[in-house]
Request: fold
Amino acid sequence: IAKACCGTLASAGTLELLAESEALAPAVIDRAASVVAALAQEPGAELADATLLRLVNQTLRVQGHAEIRARDPARLPEIYEPALVNSDTDLASLADGIGRSGSARLCLYGPPGTGKSAYARWLAKRLGRSLLLRRGSDLVSMWVGQTERNIANAFRAAEQDGAVLVIDEVDGFLRDRRGAQRSWEVTEVNEMLTQMEAFPGIFVATTNLVDELDAASLRRFDLKARFGYLRTEQAAELLRRHCGVLGLTDPGAHELALLSQLGTLTPGEFAAAARRHAFQPFASAAQLVEALAAECALKAGGRQPIGFVVH
Reply:
């Protein structure tokens, strides 16, 4: 629909952004494209994806919907591939199996930045389903009983739309009830467990604190998949791909050797370095590796591996 409305006015990337918006009506795209086409006929006017997105976002904002971000940090990276994620589960085969069954309750756990949420987004895209992402701030309410209603509404909306429901940092709702001090801490867990049990679709929960989850919740997950730090060959391949995307020369043996010393490297560090490149460009693969080392050092309390110096 976006392509039919915009024709050659927008790039493939912008068309994909328009298609991802759940609140965007075809008429809004068509009107915005008409304005952009008219502007293009004026002397000196220049077609720009930014103009189209700005016009569309003006309407979305007036309608009370979320705007389309040209650069959304939550969007799946272009170079994402499950094979470059260190998990104890074959993630591609898992997606194929879920596609055949149409139902699954997954708990993805592991350190921050290891690719749990990214896999959930990739899974929805692989299955051709929309993604309904909810975080703690979307569900928690100061009013008694409202958090439980928000949880129920999220599951209901996902079921109605056939969407993949993702709840990030689910430990905020599924903490062990034995440590609860207030009644609502128990009722929130009970509501989440009840909704999980009755949900017929695909539910993905992510957590960095699997040891703190309620034991009853763990039993309700069909599969618990661990996500860990990158293996050496995965880190090397991600470095090569990022160098290609960022316009850097391929890393040499020296850079790859230094990279192999980073035992706590995750896809999250690569994403952070890529964002930094946007405003402080790296001149070489060596500088990119140095930035990755600095990110890893922060996780270790500022301790950088001995002998790791990049010139």
User: Anything to note?
Assistant: The longest strand covers residues 104-109. The two ends are 50 Å apart (CA to CA). The CA atoms of residues 134 and 154 lie 8 Å apart. Residues 304-311 have pLDDT under 50 and may be disordered.
